Amino acid sequence: MRVLLCGQGTSEILWSIHAALIALGHESVLALPDISREVIDRPIDAILALNLFEIPRDTVEMLTTYVASFGTRPALVHICLKHPLEEIGATTPAAVAEADRWMERWNVRMWCMCPSVAEQCGRLGLTRVFHAPLGVHPWICALRDGDGTLHLYKRWMSQADPGLVRHPYRAMTGEAGDRDETPLVAGRFVYLGQGCPPAESADPAVRRAAEAVAEAMRARPGLHRTAAMDLCGLCGPSADPAWTLAFNRVFAAVFAVENRRRFATALRDAFGDAFALWGDGWDRYGLAAHPVSPGPRALYHEAAACLDFGSLAYDTAIFPRTLEIVKRDGLLVSWRHADSGRLFGPVEDELTFGDGEEAVQRLAALRDDPDRRARLRTSHREWVSDRLSLERILPGVLAGGCPPSPHTHAQSTDTSV
């Protein structure tokens, strides 16, 4: 197949998908920061995008029609970084149905990384949403010109290209910050994330519903959001898209942000400055934090452990932050989700926690034992690399709606550097 990757946002996701597609024998291009004519002047089987629904529909239709003029009408897959309902901006059943018809007409599907949110979307009538986990790949692929120049973007690449090279994922350091933050990360427990969402006014009844669901999920960590909403008797109102959008905004505050506050406070009380925070909004809880910076992400491997307290958008352990930590050789220690077993496998009991007290216990056991940290990091990385390999996940993602393709290369070339 020939696959184009594009969109603004968490481009690290696309780096990994690009390398995995090439490893699978496909031809792929990272059309970043934008799509230019030289990369779409050929048959393309699929387009995977990060922000498809921020582009005007007529532009999407023109792009699809132009690519189809070369003989292949592409399948379009939007990778959801937010709730799909929020992505499409539909607030009524009629608007949901209209968006669903448009997606069917133009062969658009929405890849949702959270199983409970995908289930919620199905109940709301979004038939084009499917669930598949995000995954990892150990390499990043680039193309070397005859003069030695390396290109990551806007070059079609496949195993057949003699200039193809692979770099370990961690070699991509990304945007450089204003200072060397290694001393702030090395040997510490680190967390990068905002401490509060934007202020939202909410109907008191919606807030009560969100608080009831949050309480149910804290009492029973194995529950995901949709099951907890059913348990709280919210099947009726949750069929209304506008109510669901309002509920999700409040739920992010009373559950996800409150979890972050509880865990961060417990760890700062237990470990002091050995627990380092980056992000906005922590001052409202009396917690000192470093300003938002791209630097620490490239230093995850230097930390004693890298914390995750959950996503603001989703109820899954498998999302961009947790996978980025693993791909950058960090030791991930995470709040326990309903699907944590899928991410952690045999090391789940040692690397996940249910409350602040358990989080302190997990980190205290790791703090002065570098051999244990190294063992757990290796075991976890091997598990994720196998069970959440994008080479396993992508064939299923591409299978729905993608036509049979002649653009697949079977040969394998070791081009690692």
Question: What's the layout of helices and strands?
Answer:
Blueprint: E1 2-6, H1 11-23, E2 27-31, E3 46-49, H2 57-68, E4 75-79, H3 84-88, H4 93-105, E5 108-112, H5 115-123, E6 129-131, E7 139-144, E8 150-151, E9 164-168, H6 182-185, E10 189-192, H7 204-219, H8 225-231, H9 241-271, E11 275-278, E12 305-308, H10 320-327, E13 332-335, H11 340-344, H12 348-351, E14 352-353, H13 356-367, H14 370-387, H15 390-399
Parallel strand pairs: 1-2, 1-3, 3-4, 4-5, 5-6, 10-11, 10-12, 12-13, 13-14
Antiparallel strand pairs: 7-8, 7-9
Helix pairs in contact: 7-8, 7-9, 9-13
What is the general shape? Answer: globular
DSSP strand (E) fraction? 5-15%
Measured as a percent range, the helix fraction is 40-55%
Total number of strands:
14
Strand order of the largest sheet: 2-1-3-4-5-6
Radius of gyration: 22 Å
- Topology as H/E string? EHEEHEHHEHEEEEHEHHHEEHEHHEHHH
Residue-averaged pLDDT: 92
Please describe the biggest sheet, giving its number of strands, its sense, and whether it closes into a barrel. 6 strands, parallel
Label the structural class: alpha/beta
Distance between the termini: 25 Å
What number of domains?
A: 2
Tell me what the structure shows:
There is one protein chain. Helix content is 40%, strand content 14%. Helix 1 links the parallel strand 1 (2-6) and strand 2. By secondary structure, the chain is of the alpha/beta class. It starts with a strand and ends in an 18-residue tail after the last helix. The chain has 15 helices and 14 strands.
